[in-house]
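Box 3.1. Reading complex inputs
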Amino acid sequence: MRNAPRSEDIASAIRRRVFEHAMRNNGGYLSQACSAAEQLAFLYNEALTLGPSTMPMIPPPFGGVPSAQNPDYVTGAGYNGPAAPEYDRLFIAPAHYALVAYACLIEVGRMAPEGLEMFNQDGSSVEMIGAEHSPGMEVHNGTLGIGLSTAAGLAWGRKRRGERGEVCVFMSDGEVQEGQTWEAVQAATHHEIGNLWALMDVNRQQCDGAMDDVMKVGDIATKLRNFGAVVAEVDAHDLDALRQAKATPHDGQPLIILAHSSPTKGMDFLMRRFPRLHYVRFKTAQERDEMNIAIARELGIDPIVLEDH
Amino acid sequence: MEMVNRPYASAFEAYAVQHPEVLCLSADLTSSCEIDGFRDRHPDQFLSLGMAEQNMLSFAGGLGLAGFRPFIHSFGVFLYRRPYDQLMASIAYPRRKVRLMGFLPGITTPGGMTHQAIEDISVMRTIPNMTVLEAGDATEVESIVAEADTVDGPVYCRILRGSVPRLFNTPLRIGQMRVLAEGDDVLVVTAGIATEEAMRARAALDAAGVAVRHLHLSTLKPFDAAQIVEHAASVRHGVVTLENHLVAGGVGSMVAEALAEAGLARKLVRLGLQDTYAHGGSKPYLMRYYGLDALSLVRAVERVTGQETGITEEALCAVRVDAVHSAVKAEAL
């Protein structure tokens, strides 16, 4: 028996925390919590070998951007533990999942709940679109498609150094619309970067709506395999399936797990918004109250107590 | 004048083999960037990344994160136009020690618009954390490799390839401009291949009684505005800049900004590409066509002094340019 918390419970807690935050702040990236909660819980709670956080539980304020005049600059990577040879590294490629990633950091004990109160506040490092200096982030991924390339370079370097730790990228399926993603896969397979793996949230949604309406991408798995990657496909909300997928042999080649997810998992009430799920705002107080009651019921909690608005 | 064949090839190899954390990256222009011999002799230190510059730049950022110092080789234009976002997010912002080796700067390629990096200095110098260097002769090409690798952050270098004249006998040093002449009539500021042209013009101008003060810049960022202003203040008539680049955003702009910020009023003529693309052709043809040559410089000096020199194209062709020896004073930043 494991004494550690179950990833299933962490996933539920992530959804609850993101929901509460969205209710209190008149909107948020709710759908990303629905689709990715199990995936992030799986990464932090099981899949990744990470050392203890080197950063304070309550995130420091924004400390300036990297420059020759800012020698004390640090990234947010310390929340994932030290960059030691034996530890894995994680990039959150879709940086707009930051709210969900921060909630995960809280649930796995790497950040204090107060950290989320700083979300999107002026002068805070807990930025809306995860920046390098935001908790749990190590590189800028705000422009989609650059994460996998950067990770491939880091993984190549770590392999060259004989480091045991792997490099993992949490990706979004919208990124396969970017040409750079395919350049990255072809480079990773050409150079046999087998210490690289990715977990892709395949929720079939993007900013403008359903991907099939915005830009069809076809069969992602077949395309990735044709580029040389080893691909596993799973139900994103089935943790046993995620565990099995992670164990897929991929000797000498990158592994990409396509986690087919529901963008409303755990909050089916959001289907009323489909396909505009990217960022959920409330148009009226009545709508917010309605959603508060309905989704709280789905999540098994009391409605969030809201201040007057 | 001594001509040196492929100075980059030998300088890079000599340096890289001594520094295992240096990696040689190429995007399918390996022989065009003179690293084919290195690839063949040191395959373990060479990474082929194919025709995929967006990935290459982010990948290089990842290598930098892993503690390596990648030297990226391509034509200068391919290092920033298509992969500008990757240059910003994966290299410049996080200050990765990536060395961007840009071959065929400006009109040194017959490849036309798609191959000619005519706004690279303008782009690169506005990027925070970026250092910008430009080689003007074989000695500077040879010394730019080790010098660039001392930069604590990313650096973009304009590299000359093939048969390159040797003008200087002291190495390129970051932050040091070369004072090639100390006349007090007109200040001429040049970089890259423009310097050889200016040396040709200077010899003729000397003979015509115009005393030129000539500065050669190999560090374009950080830009030593104070030194420029000091030199500009010491000449009688004004300043002419000549560059293998658009005048907007390049050396001409930098000098103008320096003079304006110092409140120093001097007539300024900026030679280079004047808000135009170039087309494909030989280097001498293009330099003449776009007014980047010695004759154009002479005419610009005449505009600044208000006096015709009588110098003809034939007179300029007859000028012999000798290597600059130890009389050259390198000034610290």
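In summary: Residues 326-333 of chain B have pLDDT under 50 and may be disordered.
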